Prior knowledge:
Layout: H1 2-14, H2 23-29
Amino acid sequence: MRALVAGIALLLLSGAVSATATPADDIxxxxxxxAGRNFAGADLTGADLRGADLTGATLDGTILTGATLVGANLxxxxLRGADLREAYLRDVRASGANFSGAxxxxxxLxxxxLRTANLERADLARAVLDSAQLEGAILxxxxxxxxxxxxxxxxxxxxxASTLIAADLxxxxxxxxNFAGADLxxxQLAEYGPAGARLAGATxxxxxxxxxxxxxxxxxxxxxxxxxxxxxxxxWSDLSWVRASRANFSKASLAWAIGYGADFSSTSFAAATLNxxxxxxxxxxxxxxxxxxxxxxxxxxxxxxxxxxxxxxATVALFNASKNIPTSLRRPIKP
Length: 335
């Protein structure tokens, strides 16, 4: 009898017999040979697939809730509509992968490589993407409230119409990123935190925020050179010490925003709303304020050399100790 039992065990271990094996068991057992295979719709809840080679595999609609894919290779894999909530994807390689419509809430994607990946309409609420590589990634209409993207690389990424309320993008590279119509401000999703997104120290050179909701967002010490904020809402935002030369804030709302010590050289505020905005100590050399609203705007100690205030009522602004006040101001300014 003992010999018979031992023989059956050997058969099971060798894979010749699979008395109780499920499709998920087969996938996990063969994790080194999964490239290009089709596992659409499989239930892999909690599966251990760390280091698995899933290059080009099809995992559309697959359930991977709580699964471990640390260090796995998902390059060019398709995970459309997959459920990866609370999955562990640290150091995963997923360049060119398709996560469109996937559920990645609270997933850990620290240091993940997602260059040119498609995350359109993906749910990444409270996901961790610190130091992730997302250059050229597609995140249009993605849902990222409360997500952590500190030190991530998003140069050239498309985040148009995405939701980033209370997200942390501090020290992130967002050069040439597209945030047109994105929502990074406070408002409808209080459960993800009371504050706007944090982009303190981020690199946003030539980033596009046209029409974006940026209420209460912190850009403190960010690099905004040549960035576009046309028609954006920056009410109550923090722009202190930013470097924003040649940026475009035309027709934007900056009411109650603060920009202490900021560099806005050659920046356009044409037709912008700057009521109660604090620009104390800011560099505004050659800045364009034509047709801007300046009710109680504070230019104290700001450098206004060659700034253009044509067609603007500057009498309602404050210029205490301002430097190089231009002669184009139409009326005597307030002391």
